[in-house]
Specification:
CATH architecture of the largest domain: 3-Layer(aba) Sandwich
Strand content: 25-35%
Number of domains: 2
Structural class: alpha/beta
Shape: elongated
CATH topology of the largest domain: Rossmann fold
CATH class of the largest domain: Alpha Beta
Radius of gyration: 21 Å
């Protein structure tokens, strides 16, 4: 049985604030998109094996595999289904896939699913692996949604008498209504001061997707009053507070840009995009869902894959852009 919360609809996004037709290949597939149906399916006696959802002996790929999983991993999941010791739970909400522990995916995919599940039954707790307890942003965001988790050992088979499984939307294709519900849940956690800060989020300490000429970029941004921050050095609550005081945010493709969720509506986001063959507009899509002013520059990259690309920021472009908006 399933309860439909919202039927499929067409979403028309506005162009980036500094959009040029010469950059059409970077955005054209995201201006006019179909957002699939949002629903919650209810299962009786469903089983969770690590991050896999089974209805009896049948793997429910739609509700646990937003991205592809290898055949070997699926076979191992079936074996574990039969050999793992069972733990029984009465009710729970299931919201995970294999990317859910990531900062971006947690806020833009998992939390909207939790909200959907709570719209069907707000008293039911969220089922999460025990190791998720190490992430303060997860625990604090559950508190912001006014819900709790039931933590489970991934070496057990969890049998749930009544399981609520919200549907998984297409990756990076957000329903603005639910993204705004996530944002609004955090509003009591942040200050009411007018945003004045100009922040550059550095990926210098990340393993990939770095800015090759970051020192030159850093020196230029200082002249415009920007502060460079490393989000991995800040607690989750401090990240929220900083973003609530930020009026302009700059960074390249990475989880740090997710924090635009905590900026006041109408703030400015500037993405330093990589000129790659594969296109990922998750932060453009997120910014438009949040009603921010989204700007961008296209920059030379050392890879055609967005997830691997380090970039050489075009300093002339970013300086011209800053001069036009400051």
């Amino acid at each position: 049985m399933k309860k439909i919360l919202k039927k499929e609809f067409t979403l028309l996004r506005i162009n980036p604030a500094n959009y040029s037709a010469t950059d059409s290949r970077h955005f054209q597939d995201d201006f006019d998109v179909s957002i699939i149906e949002n629903h919650v399916r209810m299962y009786k006696n469903a089983s969770i094996v690590q991050l896999y959802l089974f209805n009896w002996f049948c793997l429910q790929k739609t509700y646990c595999l937003t991205r592809k999983a290898s055949s070997i991993k699926k076979i191992k999941a079936y074996i574990k289904f039969f050999i793992f010791k069972k733990r029984k739970i009465n009710e729970a909400i299931w919201v995970l896939d294999q990317w859910s522990s990531g900062y971006f995916h947690w806020f833009t995919e998992v939390l909207p699913r939790i909200i959907s599940g709570m719209e069907v039954n707000k008293e039911v707790k969220v089922l999460l692996p025990l190791h998720f307890k190490q992430y303060d942003f997860m625990l604090e965001s559950l508190g912001a949604l006014k819900t709790e988790a039931v933590f489970y050992d991934i070496n057990q088979r969890i049998v749930v008498n009544k399981l609520f499984a919200p549907s998984h939307l297409q990756p990076a294709q957000f329903d603005p209504e639910y993204i705004l519900k996530v944002r609004d849940a955090f509003q009591p956690c942040v200050t009411s001061n007018l945003p004045e800060k100009k922040i550059y989020i550095s990926r210098k300490k990340a393993n990939r997707r770095k800015v090759i000429n970051e020192q030159e970029l850093h020196n230029m941004l200082i002249a415009y009053g920007f502060i460079t921050v490393y989000m991995e050095e800040l607690s989750f609550s401090n990240q929220q507070a900083l973003m609530n005081e930020t009026k302009i945010l700059i960074s390249n493709h990475g989880a740090g840009l997710t924090n635009m969720l905590f900026m006041k509506e109408g703030s400015t986001v500037i993405e330093l995009k990589a000129d790659t063959l594969d296109i990922n507009n998750c932060f453009f899509n997120l910014a438009t869902a949040l009603n921010h002013q989204y700007y961008y520059t296209i920059n030379q990259s050392d890879s055609n894959e967005i997830q691997k690309a380090n970039i050489m920021v075009d300093l002339i472009k970013i300086e011209s852009l800053l001069n036009s908006i400051l």
